[in-house]
Amino acid sequence: MTAETLAHLMKQSNRTVVLTGAGMSTESGIPDFRSSTGLWRNINPRIVASTESLQKNYEQFREFYQTRMNSLNNCKPHEGHLILADFEKRGLVSLIATQNVDQLHQQAGSKNVAELHGNIVTIRCQKCGKPHAKEQFLNNSICTYCSGKLRPNVVLFGETLPSEAWDRTLHEIHQADLVIVIGTSLEVYPVNQLPSMSKGKLVYINREQTSTSLHYSFDLVLEGSAGKILADVYQELGDFEK
Ligand code: BV8
Question: Which residues are responsible for catalysis (predicted)?
Answer without folding.
Answer: 117 (proton acceptor)
